[in-house]
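Async update (no meeting this week)

Hi team, since we skipped the sync, here's where things stand on the single-chain job. The sequence we agreed to prioritize is pasted below, unchanged from the tracker. I ran it this morning and attached the output directly underneath so nobody has to dig for it. Comments welcome in thread, and please keep replies under the output.
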Amino acid sequence: MHSGGVASRSAEPRDSARESRSGTPQLDAVSLAIIEQLQEDGRRPYAAIGKAVGLSEAAVRQRVQKLLDQGVMQIVAVTDPLTVGFRRQAMVGIHVEGDVESVADALTAMPDVEYVVMTAGSFDVLAEIVCEDDDHLLDVINRRIRALPGVRSTESFVYLKLKKQTYMWGTR
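Output:
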């Protein structure tokens, strides 16, 4: 984390995120510092962020909107699933026969599936599921995931205790 401001970093507000040849935005130091400020406190006022990074409130607002529009970041409230009634979480490893992307797309459309990643390794897809209880988890795995065309098998890893969950990796 930066403890001081970054006013010495030079960049115009409109140059915050240019796209590289691969189509991914290339972020300058000021945009990274803005992201870092918001990761520390997503409700931090734009004026305070501007002071920390050496920009006006309006310039920060403009950069944040561009970062949101480009899909570089999201500003969301992260809850503890247990405190809002979801008592069962699991990571499900899925072996796929055929088109992995179509299975991943179908999983992405399921409201109980919070995270989907196509992998290289012993599973083709990993999906994180957040459920109310074991019956709900069984329903999602047995009736929805295993019923998808192309799903050959699944292996479930039920969470016993969540020890670490952070979202601070975006600027290091």
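Quick observations from my side:
The longest strand covers residues 88-96.
The helical segments are 29-40, 46-53, 57-69, 100-108, 134-145.
Reply here if anything looks off.
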